[in-house]
């Protein structure tokens, strides 16, 4: 048996619609995937075809993607549920929202069992087409039947790992920045354990404590001390020193007045004698 060659081609209708979409500023809206058995054997699909040889299943597109290494590739995927089967897939087609066959492919023979065969499985159909103006092709996805392929799972895990790495990096940078900021603040504040206040853990509380202490200091003359070592006063506070000076001043005034009176009396006596 000769080796079969499998391929995907745009139909003439598909090429014309995509070309017109480019000129008219519109899009070709891909909506469904069809599967067929090729009429019982392999055959080579052609661009002139407008339908599969023998359609056995049709369903909405469940997911689509673009190949990372081939930006012009559009990947459409659909799922044949396990409850449907009893046929072999040898051909597939992409159908737009107007019912036209845009692309057709010859696919490797795959049997889809039915429940009565004693086996049941979902069959995932993957259709890849290459177009020069990808932006002019729109795929309508059925949101009720989204499934996860192995490649999707690997991509998600890769993105999660990248996100974890970014989170770890950000966490490390934040921790480093916080420690740097703490060091700078501590350098500006100084060692709070050296404070002689009751509260040594909070600068604001310590300052308030100092203010309270300052406010409570009495600065009256009675409470203000006075150093009498270099003076002839006996008082030890300002008020006492003032009182002592006043007393001495009064005593001095009395003495001066007495001496003045004596002087006047003597002067008068001298005048009388003359």
Can you walk through the features of this model?
- A hairpin with a 6-residue loop joins strand 4 and strand 5.
- The strands form 2 sheets. Strands 1, 2, 3, 6, 7 and 9 form a 6-stranded mixed sheet that branches.
- Helix content is 37%, strand content 23%.
- It folds into 3 domains: 146 residues, no CATH class; 44 residues, no CATH class; 57 residues.
- The radius of gyration is 53 Å and the shape is rod-shaped.
- The longest helix is centred in the middle third of the chain and has 40 residues.
- The protein has 274 residues and is an alpha+beta fold.
Topology, please?
Elements: E1 7-10, H1 12-24, E2 28-36, E3 55-60, E4 63-66, E5 73-80, E6 87-96, E7 101-112, E8 123-130, E9 137-139, H2 150-189, H3 203-215, H4 238-273
- The portion of residues forming beta strands comes to 15-25%
**Structural class by helix and strand composition:** alpha+beta
Assembly state (oligomeric): single chain
Unreliable residue stretches? none
The pLDDT mean sits at 79
Number of strands: 9
Number of domains: 3
The helix content, as a percent range, equals: 25-40%
Shape summary: rod-shaped
Report the C-alpha radius of gyration, rounded.
Answer: 53 Å
**SSE arrangement, N to C:** EHEEEEEEEEHHH
End-to-end CA span: 176 Å
**Tally of alpha and pi helices:** 4
Largest sheet properties: 6 strands, mixed
């Amino acid at each position: 048996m000769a080796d079969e060659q499998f391929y995907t081609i745009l139909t003439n209708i598909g090429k014309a619609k995509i070309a017109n979409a480019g000129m008219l500023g519109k899009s070709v809206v891909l909506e469904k995937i069809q599967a067929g058995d090729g009429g019982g054997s392999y055959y080579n699909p052609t661009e002139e075809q407008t339908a599969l040889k023998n359609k056995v299943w049709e369903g909405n597109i469940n997911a689509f993607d673009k190949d990372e290494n081939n930006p012009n590739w559009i990947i459409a995927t659909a799922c044949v549920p396990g409850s449907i089967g009893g046929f072999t897939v040898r051909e597939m087609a992409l159908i737009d929202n107007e019912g036209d066959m845009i692309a057709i492919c010859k696919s490797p023979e795959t049997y889809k069992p039915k429940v009565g065969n004693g086996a049941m499985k979902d069959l995932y159909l993957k259709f890849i087409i290459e177009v020069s103006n990808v932006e002019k092709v729109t795929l309508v996805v059925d949101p009720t039947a989204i499934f996860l392929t192995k490649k999707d799972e690997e991509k998600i895990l890769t993105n999660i790992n990248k996100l974890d790495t970014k989170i770890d990096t950000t966490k490390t940078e934040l921790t480093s920045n916080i420690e740097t900021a703490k060091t700078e603040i501590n350098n500006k504040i100084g060692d709070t354990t050296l404070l002689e206040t009751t509260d040594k853990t909070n600068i604001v509380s310590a300052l308030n404590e100092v203010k309270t202490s300052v406010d409570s200091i009495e600065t009256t003359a009675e409470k203000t001390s006075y150093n009498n070592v270099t003076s002839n006063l006996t008082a030890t506070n300002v008020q006492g020193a003032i009182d002592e000076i006043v007393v001495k001043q009064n005593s001095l005034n009395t003495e001066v007045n007495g001496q003045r009176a004596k002087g006047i009396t003597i002067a008068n006596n001298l005048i009388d004698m003359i």
